[in-house]
Amino acid sequence: MTNFTPREIVSELDRYIIGQNGAKRAVAIALRNRWRRQQVPEELRDEIAPKNIIMIGPTGVGKTEIARRLAKLAQAPFIKVEASKFTEVGYVGRDVESMIRDLLELAIHMVKDEEAVNVRIKAEDQAEERLLDLLLPGKPKAEEEEKAESREHTRDKLRRLLRQGALDERVVEVETQVSKLPVMEIFTPQGNEEMGINMKEMFGSLFPKKTKTRRMKVAEAREMLIEAEAEKLVDMDKVTTLAKERTEQSGIIFIDEIDKIASREGGHGPEVSREGVQRDILPIVEGSTVNTKYGPVKTDHILFIAAGAFHVAKPSDLIPELQGRFPIRVELVKLSEEDFIRILQEPRNALLRQYSALLETEGIDIQFQEDSIREIARTAALVNSRMENIGARRLHTVLEKLLEEISFDAPDLTEKKIAIDASYVRAKLEGISRDDDMARYIL
Q1: Maximum C-alpha span of the chain
Q2: pTM attached to this predicted model
Q3: Core-most of 185, 222, 243, 417, by most CB within 10 Å?
Q4: By CB neighbour count within 10 A (0-12 exposed, 13-18 middle, 19+ buried), where does 277 fall?
Q5: pLDDT at 207 over 70
Q6: If we measure between CA atoms, which residue out of 443, 394, 393, 401 comes closest to residue 425?
Q7: CA-CA distance, 349 to 376, in Å (whole number)?
Q8: How would residue 46 be classed by pLDDT, with cut points 50, 70 and 90?
């Protein structure tokens, strides 16, 4: 686990997310507390529960992005789930325990990739030997000493050429394994995820693995063989153990749209089902053991970050037990015109930088003048204020409409240097942004 200080975490988040300092500080403290817990004496360590967070704010203000960047920073298994997709136990649909199974699967892929990197050198050596067997086929059982020496000399010569890349364009035939299983889905009260996985395991050995010969260039074959050899060298028991530990100790689950399962006054109709989903989520957030195909997983120390707009429902509409499991509440503010100006320019993945890079592939050098950036931000803020406020996502729709003509004509344009100023932006967008009906459908 990384041991960034809260200040360093906020500084890293600032590179991608504009504003929302309250939310950044809250998640930075939560992440630092995970590292602190690892330094605490063992007898007390298990008693320290993570302080789960609820982010409250309209769409497009950075709730999901903060959680996603945080997980990347922590190098922790991270999964985003929609609370509205889950159903109460007994109904057909996804049960809440599937989020833990999905998190573990993701952790296994993470650890497996890391272990594959560790064994890559050995895998490269073994792949090289297999490639040399393909390039120099036929190995008689008993060879004369002279022939054996000549063969070894040829093999060494091929090895040198292979390492120099001189044989990369040569075509070889590689045998690959193809395992075809019949597709079947079995629905159970617990959902079909686990059953589907177990059926594959049960019947996998009954269907023989077929081999298929593929013709490919040496460069492509080398990569494929390295992956195959690395997979053989990776110890899956070790991977499973490490992945389970990482899931339990540093896993992060982001539950989006939690306001959609908040039951408002009066408990009838769909409200009852919403409350049922909350009661199903409660033991997982509190700390329980979930059975997976890799063994039981404890959820006591998984960090849960919930988010919702709470336009209609309020956090107090959640059942009291669930409210108590999210002690930290952070309100994210609506984005202003000044925020939009910063979003367009400052982050490492700034939108204007992305669009400039895309058009650069066509040889177009597009320059956004200072006044044009302000005009784009003003238009986005205006449309947000007059219609549904979708936050920074409005900038995507505005920029797509603004650059639609240039993007379409880019391969055929003779003028490769284009300057975008405020008058160009107004010419393209002003009519649409002023007409509510047009803006509703286009922007």
Answers
A1: 92
A2: 0.78
A3: 243
A4: buried
A5: no
A6: 401
A7: 18
A8: confident
Closest by alpha carbon to 111, among 237, 293, 252? 237
Write out the two tokens for 443.
């922007």
Contact assessment for residue 115 and residue 232, using Cβ atoms and an 8 Å cutoff: no
Residues 6+ apart with CB under 8 A from 34: 1, 50, 74, 249, 250, 303
Tell me, letter by letter, the H, E, C secondary structure of 292-355. ECCEEEECCCCEEEEEECCCCCCHHHCCHHHHHCCCEEEECCCCCHHHHHHHHHCCCCCHHHHH
Q: How many CA within 13 A on the CB side of residue 184? A: 11
Closest CA to 50 of 240, 298, 257: 298
Token pair, residue 23, equals 């939310």
CA distances from 319 to 66, 265, 281 (A): 26, 12, 11
* Residue burial 39-69, b: 16+ Cβ < 10 Å; e: rest: eeeeeeeeeeebbbbbbbbbbbbbbbbbbbb
* DSSP letters for 397-431: HHHHHHTHHHHHHGGG-S--EEEE-HHHHHHHHHH
What angle is formed at CA 413 by the lines to CA 418 and CA 407, rounded to 5 degrees? Answer: 70
Amino acid identity of residue 325, one-letter, is R
How remote is the C-alpha of 295 from its chain's centroid?
Answer: 24
48 φ, ψ (degrees, to nearest 5): -90, 110
